[in-house]
């Protein structure tokens, strides 16, 4: 096989498996393509298209004390790179001690019918309708005395997974994000909106610009408020950021060992406890319309919530919380065995539903006095035992009085636990697809309602815009 020959992804997977001399082998070929637009001051600045391939080889070696694993990933892999890559993974496995998460490699999963098909690719054509509409939004913003900044990105990844146990699986994952900032010419006022999309056909720049213009109008009146606890409306994007962090902190083993907010006092986990008096359900589903993700496990490395031995494991819908009651924590096959809990792998989307039908505007109209947040930023963990998080508000916090927004207030640093927020929330609005601003580089497939928190802790004033 010549390095000058264009090797198809399924062929490179098959060849790597043929080269393997280990007791077990998993090969993951990720074919990536991306297209992007960037703009500043109501004008496009850059655009581009990229393509690439990453190959991951996972070798497993059986020994008297257990099974070891070695993982090596490389990009821009050619045919001549294959054997050295496979041998490097095998050497890593033979040099490692027994893997704590060792399990038999997954088998018996039907092959994907399109495993041998060419990878899906995105191009700049994905912006064919979006770009002209964005240009029209630039003109309206210019006429209205505001400046638009931001970027749009579309990625398409085709993942090919093959194993020595016979698995041949493939998934195409689209991932699009739009972030749009509107600023006043003197830069003293700023508003943000973001969207997640599969194909940019459901994104309306005119509607986003109209919303941002409304918020900049609210900010023409400035009100200074001290730190304190305020009734606060958290929009879907902020709720998503908080609950995604909660999901990342929901490893069953950590909870069973008494190290997290999901640990039960006296031992065990809090599964079965009521986390919210509202009938809210937090769930994940690889087949959720518009939020689909791979229906099988893809793990490039082992960690608290993933295991390379679980590659190819079928994924199904999971209720993490059902009508306010904690139902599942994240488990690999290994941690499920340790804790006695059912297998519940880390998901690729997160949905909170079971709230009401009110839109965020309708929730504002029902507010006597409180704060309306735009988004959260720079979220960091303070205390894992309570999942206390800290972070900042950004790009607009507004004062609501008698059902109307009456002005913009200063930004704040907050200190809150998402688990506590669920227990204190007094209202949830209508669930809608949203882009989590803080975690949009890692997790984009989310649908959340707005939440009303009667006593959100704005712990100190922040002077950021």
TrEMBL record:
Span of domain Metalloprotease TldD/E central: 127-217
Ranges where the record places region Disordered: 94-114
Superkingdom of the organism of origin: Bacteria
Coiled coil: none
Pfam families associated with the record: PmbA_TldD_2nd, PmbA_TldD_3rd
Metalloprotease TldD/E C-terminal domain mapped to chain residues: 228-459
InterPro entries given in the database record: Metalloprtase-TldD/E_C, Metalloprtase-TldD/E_cen_dom, TldD/PmbA_N, TldD/PmbA_sf
Protein name per the record: Peptidase
């Amino acid at each position: 096989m010549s390095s000058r020959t264009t090797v198809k992804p399924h062929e490179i997977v098959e060849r790597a498996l043929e080269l393997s001399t280990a007791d077990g082998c998993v090969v993951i070929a990720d074919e990536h393509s991306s297209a992007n637009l960037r703009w500043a001051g109501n004008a496009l600045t850059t655009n581009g298209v990229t393509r690439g391939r990453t190959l991951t080889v996972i070798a497993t070696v059986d020994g008297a004390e257990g099974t070891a694993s070695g993982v090596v990933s490389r990009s821009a892999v050619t045919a001549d790179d294959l054997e050295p890559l496979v041998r490097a993974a095998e050497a890593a496995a033979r040099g490692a001690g027994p893997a704590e998460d060792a399990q038999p490699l997954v088998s018996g999963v039907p092959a994907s019918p399109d495993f041998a098909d060419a990878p899906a690719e995105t191009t700049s054509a994905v912006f064919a309708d979006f770009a002209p509409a964005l240009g029209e939004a630039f003109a309206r913003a210019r006429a209205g005395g505001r400046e638009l900044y931001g970027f749009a990105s579309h990625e398409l990844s085709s993942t090919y997974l093959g194993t020595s146990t016979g698995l041949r699986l493939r998934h195409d994952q689209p991932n699009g994000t739009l972030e749009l900032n509107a600023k006043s010419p003197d830069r003293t006022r700023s508003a943000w909106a973001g969207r997640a999309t599969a194909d940019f056909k459901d994104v309306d720049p005119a509607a986003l610009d109209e919303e941002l213009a409304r918020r900049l109008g609210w900010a023409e009146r400035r009100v200074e408020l001290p730190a304190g606890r305020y009734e606060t409306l958290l929009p879907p994007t902020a709720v998503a950021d908080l609950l995604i962090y909660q999901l990342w902190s929901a490893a069953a083993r950590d909870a069973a060992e008494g190290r997290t907010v999901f640990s039960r006092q006296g031992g065990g986990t809090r599964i079965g406890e009521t986390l919210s008096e509202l009938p809210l359900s937090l769930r994940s589903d690889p087949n959720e319309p518009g939020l689909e993700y791979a229906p099988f496990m893809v793990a490039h490395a082992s960690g608290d919530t993933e295991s390379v031995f679980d590659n190819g494991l079928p994924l199904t819908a999971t209720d993490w919380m059902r009508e306010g009651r904690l139902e599942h924590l994240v488990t690999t096959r290994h941690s499920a065995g340790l804790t006695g809990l059912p297998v519940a792998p880390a998901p690729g989307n997160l949905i909170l539903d079971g709230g009401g039908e009110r839109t965020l505007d309708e929730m504002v109209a029902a507010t006597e006095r409180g704060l309306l947040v735009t988004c959260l930023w720079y979220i960091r963990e303070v205390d894992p035992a309570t999942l206390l998080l800290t972070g900042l508000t950004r790009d607009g916090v507004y004062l609501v009085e008698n059902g109307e927004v009456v002005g913009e207030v200063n930004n704040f640093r907050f200190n809150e636990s998402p688990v506590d927020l669920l227990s204190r929330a007094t209202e949830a609005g209508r669930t809608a697809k949203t882009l989590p601003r803080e975690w949009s580089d890692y997790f984009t497939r989310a649908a959340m309602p707005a939440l009303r928190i009667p006593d959100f802790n704005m712990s100190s004033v922040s002077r950021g815009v």
